[in-house]
Predict the 3D structure of the following.
Amino acid sequence: MKFGIFYEHQLPRPWDEGAELRLYQEALDQVELADRLGIDFAWEVEHHFLEEYSHSASPEVFLAACSQRTKQIRLGHGIVLMPPGYNHPAKVAERIATLDLVSGGRVEFGTGESASRAELEGFGIDPSKKRAMWLEATEQVANMLAMDPYPGFQGEHFTMPCRNVVPKPVQKPHPPMWVACSNRDTIHLAAKLGLGALTVAFVDPTEARHWVDDYYQTLKNECTPIGHVINPNIAMVTGFSCHADPDEARRRGEDGFRFFGFGLAHHYIFGTHKPGRTSVWDLFEKARPLLPDAGAGRGIGTPDQLRAHLEPFADSGVDQVVFIQQGGRNRHEHICESLELFCERVMPDFKEREADRERAKLEALAPYLEKAMERKTWLRELDDAEIPEIVAYGRTVAQQTPAPGPGDRGVSIPLKNPLDE
């Protein structure tokens, strides 16, 4: 099984001067440490306006910074918001390819449709159309990354003429693609479209087996890929705090994990929020006595307890476990200490089996993936004669402007192509 770390960049109130700067710099230090320790993935969200819960509006910038401080760790968008009101598909393709280039080919392209009212209405997106927007944009971004030129598209939610979208990514035909999954319905959707399932629900190990079985059975029998390659992987999130003393592990990590869930519910389910004024942390403190405990069953405990927590995920066929280690007021030094202890005492037990597990899985899936690719409907490549020419505005103006008279003076601008002489 592989392991990842996950960032919302949570920042509970009250905010002192330099709090966001400190938050980002510490996160960069944590990713650099995780890379040295052998953690496989660093995931970063895209959210807007979700105060305290997520101060992560530009994941591509953070991940680009991570790329220059790391050597091996995979850099995951968890996720890019795909409705065009958030991000034009061509801009998404350009950013993904650029990040793949500056990182030397380490990008994981996670996608999603968004769900919070603050974000959707803030960008003028109709919630009833967001799934269709995600489908349309995600398929076309894959085409833009892989095709030369991109033939163009006329859809319901965005239209674009033929253009060659550059740069192109290092990973061909494009980086591995994922979709955020919050329930078993979206697990099926991910598998049907040949996308990795990045589950953002806290599933217990027993339930994880059902999610994994759903995903791989659907992938084998119903997959028609949305991208140009299939990414047969399922990742699941859990809390994280590791210490030799189980009580100290809880003191360091429990409130951060519980605030993560409370902040999510505040912005997505039950909260009333006044921008710039509501303190989510104050609301959390009032609700704390009513919230469930979070201990070894949520990835918070000793190395032995974490190993026991993670083994059922591995046995169930989960490909990656992603740690929610930065939450609430969890302290930077405690996060680093937890990562170091986990990577020394727990991770090697899972790493030594990973290469054989991955090879066996892909060999078993190979005939199913081949059949799935045969079912895909490909966007037709244009013949050279069909690729339209783009006439520069200056040339158009020159063709429409009357020739100067004998007495006209002024600056001479070359509006004629010398190759036409």
The first helix runs from residue 19 to 37. The longest strand covers residues 2-7. The chain has a mean pLDDT of 95. DSSP finds 13 helices and 13 strands in the chain.
